[in-house]
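Reviewers of the previous submission asked for a worked example of the structure-prediction workflow described in the proposal, so we include one complete record here. The input consisted solely of the amino acid sequence. No template or homolog information was supplied to the procedure at any stage.
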Amino acid sequence: MRRTLIAVTSVAALAVGYGVADAYDRVPGVLTIDEPVTEQTPAPREPTAVLPAASKQAPAPTASGMARAVRDDVGASALGPRVGVIVRDALTGDTLWSQDEDRPQTPASTAKLLTAAAVAERTDLTTTMKTTVVQGEGDELVLVASGDTMLATGAGDPTAVEGRAGLADLAEEVAASLQTKGGTRYSLRLDATYAAGERYAPGWSMADVAAGYTQGVSMIGLAGDRPEPFKPSPKVPERTVLKAFAAQLKKAGVSVSVDDSSSTWRTPAPEGAEELGSVESAPLGEIG
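From that input alone, the workflow returned the following structure tokens.
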């Protein structure tokens, strides 16, 4: 077992090809798991290590051997001239090989692999995100977001990752629950207080957002609305979801007026409110 730990920072990182493909879901991301996910409720489990521990019985790497192992890859023309690398022994911390390790550089997007690995090690990857509708005050319906940004506008597809949860299914559940209610017209609003925070991180370029290279952070969104170069995602996905859900409620026989003012999104649903319907995303391990 290798006992080296490699830290790579570069504008054009070593994994740039894979990173780009990952960004557009052309290849599996770091959180993808190959094992089929059981439909049964899993028993609680202790977090498992994503990376194996370094072995004390493994042969000690040498500086010369490490140089031979990495120089060709680090010198690849596709990476450009600004490549910074440092390779340390995972057990002793000794530096085995380095190149421009002290040069300040902007981390490439593949730095997300380290974050994803940490999340995967501490999170149950069979967990799903549950989007619900609850009864608010009077004839108010509250759509409660929980992080699923891949909701299907129609029926959900139980075999898909993107679009596993469908707004049409949610609307039908709500309609069935409301058959015993006295109201004939309802007001629909959103509760987006789950993991509330700023939409854009400090330092983000709005030009990149407008060009479709990235998007703001939201707690709810529609399948297919992720950005692509020169095809930006909706600026306010919350309103897009509310509009799509209202249309599905109408098809299911529920008449609603939509309150899409962002000020109401920061108001949580009433504590202990009656749940009228819910849909669940694919497991986190598949979404990654």
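The two ends are 27 Å apart (CA to CA). We consider this example representative of the routine output the project will generate in years two and three.
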